[in-house]
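Annotated sample (chain length 194).
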Amino acid sequence: MPSSPLRVAVVCMSNVNRSMEAHRVLRKNGFHVRSFGVGSHVRLPGGPRKPPVLYDFSTPYKKMHSDLSSKDRKHYQRNGVLRILRRNERIKPGPERFQECPDPFDVIFTCGQRAYNRVVADLCARDQETWQPVPVVNVDIDDTLEAASLGASIICELCQGLQQADDTQSRLAELLQAAKEKTGRSFLHTVCFY
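Output written by the structure step:
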């Protein structure tokens, strides 16, 4: 069994809903977790018949909440975005980009194929310094509150199984097969290096 907590990264496109719900659940369960986005901007749904609202990754969740409240409080309360941003504020100050994080992780979970592709491309483009392997696992999660909650539970179960493993690589294959049988989902995964 590993002597220190599993270092986990969870990545979606904007670091607002899916990765932050998994961050909340994993932290509550004692994991050393960080969450990230891989998009060029944080993208939130626009108002009725309006384009998405874009923010720089340097924008704090509190500022996004204030901005959206002033634009259309009723709409953003109704669609849950204000509640999500309040939850996020309790976890960390603002979104972070995966591409700007040099820290190593024991496992990286992505919340969609686009995020998975970008994480793998980023890791492959980095200079490998230690050649430490890191599994990258995609758990496809729709960008809704309900799907984010279910996806976070799946990621947490996988982390709990990995935390108890002596050999992360072989244990991961077993855990993914068991998760596939339980959920009916397939999990795209690969190993990259630091």
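Annotation: The chain has a mean pLDDT of 95.
Annotation: Strands lie at 7-12, 32-37, 42-44, 53-55, 107-110, 133-138, 189-193.
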